[in-house]
């Protein structure tokens, strides 16, 4: 396959070729988190499902940091790749890997030490606090593997190799499912078995990913590059930090909102947790298209093909609209059997009612997050980070404030009523910035002043 197909092929072909492996791979990733929930919900207890669900909002923040950091750093890599500056490309990638490895170790230590205190602050029901804390401690031990795998995946995507993360995700997902069933159903480790299965599957995948990465980079001609460069760290931080914020907005919002949901008790929490697992699947194609348009934008800006950026944006909008229609039909038709998959015949009526109510409402609004993700992706790929950051902060604020102020009075449904409002406002802010064309000026200024043009690669 042409290594520069994001620059040369028609926008719809380029985006579909690039995003399809990401969608399939992320679905497999979500698949094994769902298996985690199904296994503990059916073979341990409803309280165990609630415990994993209570932990999920916190662990998802760290996943978002890893994904957002990788995507942000990969924008710089994509530009170097688009400009055929392989020396700078390698230098930026190794700088990102080393930086995020150190960060993940520090975050893992903090998570192990203070995980229980955080869960208490989130009003986690006392009857599931011990189980949730046990799950978290094991999870945080594997945080460096999680970060390395996600950063490496983003770097493969940046150079158009999205099929490599796909194969690794399929392998990791299947391995995780096998380990889940063995550790929980055969050895009876309970929630701890689910956590150990995730750690082992991610660890093996991260090591394999790094070895494949070294082999892939050997094919690009360059020499005399550094494994860490302060200028490259500064350049990628200007994009990676807002990107982390964008990816974390939903997770941080749900972490704060989790404290509200927790006050309604373990049964509602179990239903809410099941519904959130389904939502995470529905968001996959939207997030993948947003990440695809980000890399597409960055590569075409690196090649100075601005017209293709707009063409790609309009194409991506049409694609997410089709996904939104499909998701709506599925959720509105099968919300009861979908929730029952997690809770089974043993699930309480309150848990089932909570989960189905969430899905019935949210099914109509996934077009909004599709529009938001694609527009945010273009701005991120262009390096237009200020309005991008503001839009996501506003989104976060709306969701948290409405849930915290309205849910205690009007019920738990206010938690999900706030979600599409936040998505809509975020999209409007980002779209207005897109219409001003400032993103084009910012990207042009960046290219002309960036080290990408300071020197030529040594062949």
Uncertain runs are 449-459
What coarse outline follows from CA principal-axis ratios?
globular
Helix percent band:
over 70%
Structural class: mainly alpha
Q: What percentage of the residues does DSSP assign to strands (E)?
A: under 5%
Structure description:
- The C terminus is likely disordered.
- With 459 residues, the protein is mostly helical.
- The protein is globular.
- The longest helix is centred in the C-terminal third of the chain and has 38 residues.
- It contains 16 helices and no strands.
Compact description:
Helix content is 85%, strand content 0%.
Please give the structural blueprint:
Blueprint: H1 5-8, H2 11-43, H3 46-82, H4 86-121, H5 129-141, H6 143-158, H7 163-186, H8 191-217, H9 230-262, H10 266-302, H11 306-343, H12 349-362, H13 366-382, H14 385-410, H15 413-436, H16 438-449
Helix pairs in contact: 2-3, 2-7, 2-10, 2-11, 3-4, 3-5, 3-6, 3-9, 3-10, 4-5, 4-6, 4-9, 5-8, 6-8, 7-8, 9-14, 10-11, 10-12, 10-13, 11-12, 11-13, 12-15, 13-15, 14-15
List the defining traits of the structure above.
16 helices; mainly alpha; about 85% helix; globular; single chain; about 450 residues
């Amino acid at each position: 396959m042409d290594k520069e197909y994001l620059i040369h092929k028609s926008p719809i072909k380029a985006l579909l070729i690039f995003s399809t492996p990401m969608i399939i791979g992320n679905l497999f990733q979500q698949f094994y988190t769902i298996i985690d929930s199904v296994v503990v919900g059916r073979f341990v207890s409803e309280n165990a499902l609630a415990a994993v669900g209570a932990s999920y909002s916190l662990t998802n923040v760290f996943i978002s940091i890893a994904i957002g950091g990788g995507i942000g750093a990969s924008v710089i890599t994509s530009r170097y790749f688009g400009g055929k500056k392989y020396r700078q490309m390698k230098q930026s990638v190794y700088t990102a890997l080393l930086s995020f490895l150190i960060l993940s170790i520090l975050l893992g230590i903090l998570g192990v030490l203070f995980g229980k205190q955080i869960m208490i602050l989130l009003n986690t029901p006392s009857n599931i606090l011990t189980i949730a804390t046990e799950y978290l401690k094991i999870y945080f031990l594997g945080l460096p593997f999680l970060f390395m795998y996600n950063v490496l995946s983003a770097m493969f995507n940046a150079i158009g190799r999205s099929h490599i993360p796909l194969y690794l995700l399929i392998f990791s997902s299947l391995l995780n499912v096998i380990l889940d069933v063995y550790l929980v159903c055969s050895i009876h480790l309970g929630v701890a078995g689910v956590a150990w299965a995730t750690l082992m599957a991610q660890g093996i995948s991260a090591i394999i990913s790094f070895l494949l990465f070294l082999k892939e980079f050997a094919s690009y001609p360059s020499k005399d590059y550094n494994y860490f460069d302060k200028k490259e760290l500064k350049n990628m931080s200007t994009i990676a930090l807002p990107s982390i914020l964008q990816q974390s907005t939903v997770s941080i919002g749900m972490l704060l909102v989790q404290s509200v949901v927790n006050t309604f008790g373990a049964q509602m929490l179990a239903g809410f947790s099941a519904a959130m697992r389904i939502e995470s699947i529905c968001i996959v194609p939207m997030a993948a298209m947003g990440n695809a348009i980000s890399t597409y934008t960055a590569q075409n800006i690196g090649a100075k093909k601005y017209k293709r950026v707009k063409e790609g944006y309009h194409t991506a909008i049409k694609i997410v609209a089709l996904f939104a229609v499909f998701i709506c039909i599925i959720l509105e038709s099968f919300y009861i059997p979908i929730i029952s998959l997690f809770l089974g015949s043993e699930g309480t009526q309150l848990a089932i009612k909570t989960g189905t109510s969430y899905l019935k409402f949210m099914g109509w609004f996934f077009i909004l997050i599709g529009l938001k993700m694609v527009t945010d992706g273009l701005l991120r790929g262009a390096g237009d980070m200020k309005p991008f950051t503001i839009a996501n902060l506003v989104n976060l604020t709306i969701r948290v404030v409405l849930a915290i102020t309205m849910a205690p009075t009007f019920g738990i449904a206010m938690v999900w009523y706030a979600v599409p409002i936040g998505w809509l406002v975020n999209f409007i802010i980002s779209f207005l910035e897109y219409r001003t064309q400032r993103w084009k000026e910012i990207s042009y200024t960046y290219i002309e002043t960036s080290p990408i043009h300071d020197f030529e690669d040594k062949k």
